[in-house]
Amino acid sequence: MKINIGNLVFCPRLITTIFAVIFFLLFIYLGFWQLDRAEQKREFQSFYNERHQEEIINLNNNLISNTSDFLWRRVSATGIFLEDQQILLDNQVNAGQAGYYVYTPFKIKNSPDIFLINRGWVPVGNDRNKSPKLIFTEGEVTIEGVFKKEPRTGVLLMENKAEKIEDGVTRFQKIVISEISDKTKINLFPYVIRLLPESKHGYIRNWKLRNSGENVHIGYAYQWFAFATTLFIIYFVLNIKRQGYV
Questions:
Q1: Spatial distance between the Cα atoms of 76 and 33, rounded to a whole number of angstroms
Q2: In what order do the strands lie in the sheet with 8-10?
Q3: Please, which pLDDT band fits residue 99 given cuts at 50, 70 and 90?
Q4: 182-203, pLDDT tens digit by residue?
Q5: What angle (nearest 5°) sits at the alpha carbon of residue 128, between those of residues 122 and 131?
Q6: Domain segments of the chain as ranges
Q7: Are 53 and 73 spatial neighbours (Cβ–Cβ below 8 Å)?
Q8: What's the DSSP call for residue 111?
Q9: Which of 3, 9, 23, 145 has the most CB atoms lying inside 10 A of its own CB?
Q10: Closest CA to 162 of 88, 226, 235
């Protein structure tokens, strides 16, 4: 294929054109895919903000018939912590220090529901074979938190094996409610509650404020579009010659 452009000739080879077209289309596809991911993040952030600003739901007075109505809502509950079963989520870092997130089952008053409550972060201490210093709350208490799905937090370097540190203290690499239910013999609700920073009966709770993350995806999209543009320019420059040099 030859195209005359004044005293220049555009004469790309077939194999070069095929590869250029394939990668150009791939880069364009990846750019639009990142834009789509940005839109998904934007929609989720809007959903989260709306839910978080709504009135707190009292779980003692509201039957959970549709969990999607409660997701990311702030909730309160009165009940008791089942302190004889402490769950430690391993490999959690706070201010550069290794530690755990502490999850404790919480029995809702006048309800069969038992939730895992993320009570916050504690340091590992000097000996991983010993339990960290834990607080034990006796009697009926009221807590406030956020109703959410199982956390994706957790580095699963191996099988999610339950490691018993002491009686009633078990370490996991990842929170999987069904596995914890089997281990503790407690029928846990398939969602968790993350204790609000201002609620009592917890540990360090420097929860990161959610942000949509859309700017990251938009940045990636611009990179892919830049790759496509650069490829097009290189393809054009390398395949254009002066008349008489073809």
A1: 39
A2: 3-5, 8-10, 240-242
A3: very high
A4: 999 999 999 999 999 999 999 9
A5: 55
A6: 3-46+222-240, 54-195
A7: no
A8: S
A9: 145
A10: 88
